[in-house]
Amino acid sequence: MSSLEQDLSRALAELQALERVISDLQNRAAALRALISEYDGAIQLLEELKGRGSALRILVPIGGGNFLRAEISEVEEVHVSLGAGVMIRKPIQEGYELIRQRRERLSQALKAHEEAAVNYAQRAEELRRLIQALYARLEELRKKGGKPAGQG
User: Fold this and answer.
1) CB atoms < 10 A from the CB of 113, how many?
2) Is there a contact between 12 and 138 (Cβ–Cβ < 8 Å)?
3) DSSP code of residue 82
4) Which residues, 6 or more positions from 72, have their beta carbon under 8 angstroms from its beta carbon?
5) Domains of the chain (ranges plus CATH)?
6) Angstrom distance (rounded) from CA 122 to CA 100
7) pTM
8) What residues pair up with 77 in beta bridges, in sequence order?
9) Is the dihedral of CA 112, 116, 121, 122 positive or negative?
10) How far, in Å, CA of 5 to CA of 144, rounded?
11) What three-state secondary structure class fits 70?
């Protein structure tokens, strides 16, 4: 295999690896966006509950697009997930702050994933141009009847 062919092979392998990384980052970013949306809903509901003095009627999702009508009568505490199925009770303002802080961390993680995906995509585009140039050079050498450099 000529030096030119080896360069082409390496560039193709790197491009394929970058495309897998980009896809993974895009999937993670989509999952982060979904989580952020859930946190936004929780924050919005807590803000509404904090401002109410009376009971609040809501629809509670039970899965499959189905809901139960419920009434929230007490809004002094919120149960906050610590992960792994563990929850703690916090006064509503402390719970609200914890949830808001988590949402901010998720937003920062999303930004980092999106920036990384952009950087990898730029590198992938550079590799595509390199691959096209290397391939064109190989074809040019083959049309001239010569062998690529490195083959004797």
Assistant:
1) 20
2) no
3) E
4) 49, 55, 56, 58
5) 3-143 (1.10.287.370)
6) 33
7) 0.78
8) 91
9) positive
10) 16
11) strand
